[in-house]
# Entry
Amino acid sequence: MSEKTRETAVAYRVHPIVQWVEGVETLPPLESGDRLTRAEFERRYEAMPHLKKAELIKGVVYIGASVPILHAEAQADIVGVCGFYTIYTPGISAADNGSLRMDDENELQPDLSLWIDRAGKGRARVDEDDFLVGAPELIVEVVDNREAYNLQDKMDVYRDKGVQELSLWRVADDRFDWFRLEGDEYQRITPDEKGIITSTTFPGLWLNAQALIAGNLAAVMGDLQAGLQSDEHRHFVEWLASDDDKPGE
# Structure
């Protein structure tokens, strides 16, 4: 944290309104409904170290509520599954609850981002400020009833910015939807006859969504292991290690 930011943060804790205190600029706190640029959003967010989740969606601030255990457990499960996939897929990175800079009006904090971390192959990168920038190939959002109000706006942003696959786990409804960007719209992926959803962006990422919802992680990991042993996954790993721009070249 810079000296200026540290002074601002201290001043905020003293009196969280816009004023000058002994020559130190203080900032108003982030509040849901504020309309800000991304730069101003980040400036205020950094000055509130106690705040754990805030997002800027279409220029509007949304402050995250406390996280119920149903959400937290679901997030831990899907992070574990996708994290296991990255272990066996060199060149793929995952981030849990990391800030994502998308443009001047959008900075979201997805529950999980998965992206191709190879120069010239992926759509996202880590910038000099250690922020993820761009459009990760896959985003997962765990949604409880208190978060559903801004879900469509999030989906619109992810679609418009080119996030190739989007997974929504609606924990209160025991529902898991996986969407693929086709043209300008998201289309829901239908599970196969065994109930497995297969990612096309990340070959070998096979997810038994019903087993995941039921908490049967042994079954989930068994199906994922099968995906990791598939020819499509082997070819994907070979491509990631190659100099080819596109798979199959």
